[in-house]
Automatic annotation (TrEMBL), chain A:
Record InterPro entries: DNA_recomb/repair_RecA-like, HR_Repair_Mediator, P-loop_NTPase, Rad51_C, RecA_ATP-bd
The species this protein was found in: Eruca vesicaria subsp. sativa
Protein name: DNA repair protein RAD51 homolog 3
CDD domains: Rad51C
Record bears the keyword Signal: no
Domain annotation RecA family profile: ranges: 80-269
Transmembrane segments: none
TrEMBL record, chain B:
InterPro entries, per the entry: AAA+_ATPase, DNA_recomb/repair_RecA-like, HHH_XRCC3_RAD51B, P-loop_NTPase, Rad51_C, RAD51B, RecA_ATP-bd
Localization per record: Nucleus
Stored SMART domains: AAA (SM00382)
Protein's name according to its UniProt entry: RecA family profile 1 domain-containing protein
Example GO molecular function: ATP binding
Keywords: ATP-binding, DNA damage, DNA recombination, DNA repair, DNA-binding, Nucleotide-binding, Nucleus
Family that this chain belongs to: Belongs to the RecA family. RAD51 subfamily.
Organism: Eruca vesicaria subsp. sativa
A Pfam family annotated for this UniProt entry: HHH_XRCC3_RpoA
Length: 342, 371
């Protein structure tokens, strides 16, 4: 491997190469003092370079591949991962039990289809305690559009608590279940709300989330409503936009894996000219569509709202209907043709 | 917070000097680049860049609020818990009390349906004293289409709030609170909303109405549709932040245009799902759509559609984060818009966004204009 692959500043890299240290093996055999003298850098800098070079070379030798997991272990881990219910069982079914933790899921659709509703619903549902089959986690809601309505969150939270009470009432006949301790107020207390007013703030916040989540344990879902808005207005240089966006996507993915939490990115739609006609497509372009693990598109089918799994490495593409009621997201009432597998 | 200076962020002196030397002064400059680009440009190692970016991000990221404290703030600080009542009972209850503060609300509808009537009524109720359910503040009415009529406003006031308006000098005071601006071009408008920002805070302005957003664009001589979108992108972004910053409701109106036939509203996968047979019927159903495109529609928080269907005027809550899709029939009287029933019918499907103008021509007696 070549020296230029090491994450070094360009001046040090230049010095290394001009001194003849072009491959990693040439570096690994020298001592830090020699390296410092040859390349004309300080000893501590040389030490850092050696450490970095060692990391890169070592990863190839010890225990097959460092940091890799075998597929069997991954399967076990994945099965243990919880899902966040959407409160719509048809939708949960096609999603394999709900929005999966430690994945980045993108949800897009036309205005008024219910993206924000799903966002609010998830930020409430993630808090359903473990006794009720939930995660008992907390939610981060990043609002870039100003469309988060706290009144609506309260409505959904109240409905959620009522449902849990009903459930305990039912369970009571069989064995003594604990009373529902949760109040709608507590649910709202555990939604961390950030209002983002520019793309700079959005990037800054994503960078900062790592620290925030380490300080506030139990955050199990991060909702961004919407990922698109500021990036659609303020950028002139589209190539730059793509680079910044993909770095942000990587950071989301890192967060999702590190804290095993679900990241839900809501996206807007745009019209795209393909094969001689205009079609709807999710915004932010083609290279962005690679950056999410799962992609769900919400659309109108006749008079019903449908969700379609557009992209997922593990789920078959399928669609299911849902409705938005005053109590939140629910199954569609007409249950004739529920889940369509394709 | 995007314009916070890097020099004031407790970065290591040496690092912040390097940033300054490369003309990266604000958080925006730094965060618009990826870490690797910064590494190349500043010529320092990845570790230092990462820790610098971490510090910059921490300083520039917005503060955190819990939803509960958000609710408490709203109830405590804002009169009527942050809603401007429309005095249309059914609509008010659907919207949890009226047009909410801090967001942009849009009215869409065919010409003559009553958008401006609605706006004038809102302007009036915002200027009303608190004792009568108003906001007791000034109103800025940006009247692009020259449709604002003071006489009509006073007429509405006399009919719908006679007890207030018959007090001496009240009509003058109420009407005096409504400030009408008539910009002639988009750039004119851009200048005036930028100036507004300060005066809104200083002068107790409680409502901003823009009637209409579309007229501004059509007046402009723009070759590319792309450019249009881009320009309005800035405006909606600005209006949203203005609404939020000043905690006032902003109401804009939008015109309609007929839907082009080849303009499909489908995703590519939908075509595959169905065997085209049912689809063809839909494309020939001519209806109207909002004049500003999908980017705009995403950006408004609440969209109310006013339409005419088989001789009846209907107001629909087409997009709202807190209300189900409801439709209310209404008519326009001398007292302004009033609902025929406060019980809305819930609509299903995407039809809520369609705008019908059928039978509308009969109502307003257009001669020889068939739709």
């Amino acid at each position: 491997m070549e020296t230029s692959r090491l994450p070094l500043s360009s001046s040090i890299r230049g010095k290394l190469i001009s001194a003849g240290y072009t491959s990693l093996s040439s570096i690994s055999s020298v001592s830090s003092t020699d390296l410092a003298r040859d390349v004309n850098i300080t000893e501590s800098e040389a030490f850092e370079i050696l450490k970095m070079a060692n990391q890169v070379t070592c990863s190839g030798s010890s225990s097959l591949i460092n940091g890799a997991k075998n597929a069997w272990d991954m399967l076990n881990e994945e099965e243990a991962l919880p899902h966040i219910t959407t409160s719509c069982s048809d939708l949960d079914k096609i999603l394999g039990g709900g929005i999966s933790c430690s994945d980045v899921t993108e949800i897009g659709g036309v205005p008024g289809i219910g993206k924000t509703q799903i966002g609010i619903q998830l930020s409430v549902n993630v808090q359903i305690p473990r006794e009720f089959g939930g995660l008992g986690g907390k939610a981060i809601y990043i609002d870039t559009e100003g469309s988060f309505m706290v009144e609506r969150a309260l409505q959904i939270a109240e409905a959620c608590v009522e449902d849990m009470e009903e459930y305990t009432g039912y369970m009571h006949k069989h064995f003594k279940a604990s009373q529902v301790q949760m109040k709608p107020k507590d649910i709202l207390e555990n939604i961390f709300y950030f209002r983002v007013c520019s793309y700079t703030e959005q990037i800054a916040l994503v960078n900062h989330l790592d620290k925030f989540i380490s300080e506030n344990k139990d955050v199990k879902v991060v909702i961004v409503d919407s990922i698109t808005f500021h990036f659609r207005q303020d950028f002139d240089d589209l190539a730059q936009r793509t680079r910044v966006l993909s770095e942000m996507a990587l950071k989301f993915m890192k967060l999702a894996k590190k804290f095993s939490l679900a990241v839900v990115l809501l996206n807007q739609v745009t019209t795209k000219y393909t094969e001689g006609s205009f079609q709807l497509a999710l915004a932010l372009g083609d290279s962005w569509s690679h950056s999410c693990t799962n992609r769900v598109i919400l659309y109108w089918n006749g008079d019903e709202r449908y969700a379609y799994i557009d992209k997922s490495p593990s789920l078959p593409s399928a669609s299911a209907s849902y409705t938005v009621t005053s109590r939140g997201l629910r199954n569609s009432s007409s249950s004739s043709k529920r889940v369509k597998m394709m | 917070m995007a314009n916070k200076l890097i020099g004031e962020m407790n970065l290591h002196k040496r690092i912040s000097n390097i940033f300054a030397a490369r003309n990266i002064i604000t958080a925006k400059d730094a965060l618009s680049m990826t870490e690797f680009e910064l590494m190349e440009l500043l010529d320092i190692g990845i570790k230092e860049i990462q820790s610098a970016v971490k510090l910059i991000s921490e300083a520039a990221s917005p503060p955190c609020l819990s939803a509960q404290s958000l609710l408490e703030q709203k109830v405590e600080n804002e009169y009527l818990s942050g809603h401007l009542p429309t005095h249309l009972k059914g609509l008010d209850s659907a919207l949890c009390g009226g047009i909410p503060f801090g967001v942009v609300t849009e009215l869409v509808g065919p010409p003559g349906i009553g958008k401006s009537q609605f706006c004038m009524k809102l302007a009036l109720s915002a200027s009303f004293p608190k004792a009568y359910g108003g906001l007791d503040g000034r109103v800025i009415y940006i009247d692009v289409e020259s449709k604002f009529s003071s006489r009509r406003v006073i007429e509405m006031g006399l009919k719908s709030f006679p007890e207030v308006f018959h007090l001496k000098g009240m009509a003058q005071e109420m009407a005096g609170r409504i400030l009408v601006l008539r910009p002639t071009s988009l750039s004119d408008f851009t200048d005036s909303i930028q100036e507004l920002k300060e005066s809104i805070l200083q002068n107790q302005v409680k409502l901003l109405v823009i009637d209409s957003m579309t007229a501004l664009l059509s007046g402009e001589n723009n070759p590319g549709a792309q450019r249009q979108q881009h320009q309005l992108g800035w405006h909606i972004s600005f209006l949203k932040s203005l609404a939020e910053f000043a905690r006032i409701p902003i109401v804009v109106t939008n015109q309609v245009r007929s839907q082009n036939r080849d303009e499909t509203s489908q995703y590519s996968f939908q075509a595959k799902l169905k065997d085209g047979c049912q689809e063809h019927t839909r494309t020939y159903d001519s209806h109207l759509v909002a004049a500003l495109g999908i980017n705009w529609a995403h950006a408004v928080t609440i969209r109310l559609v006013l339409e005419a269907k088989s001789g009846e005027r209907i107001i629909k809550v087409a997009k709202s984060p807190m209300s189900p899709p409801l439709a209310f029939p209404f008519h326009i009287t001398s007292g302004g818009i009033s609902l025929l029933s406060d019980e809305g019918t819930e609509l299903k499907g995407p039809g809520i966004n369609n705008i019908h103008a059928r039978g509308h021509s009969d109502m307003i007696n257009f001669n020889g204009d068939c739709l």
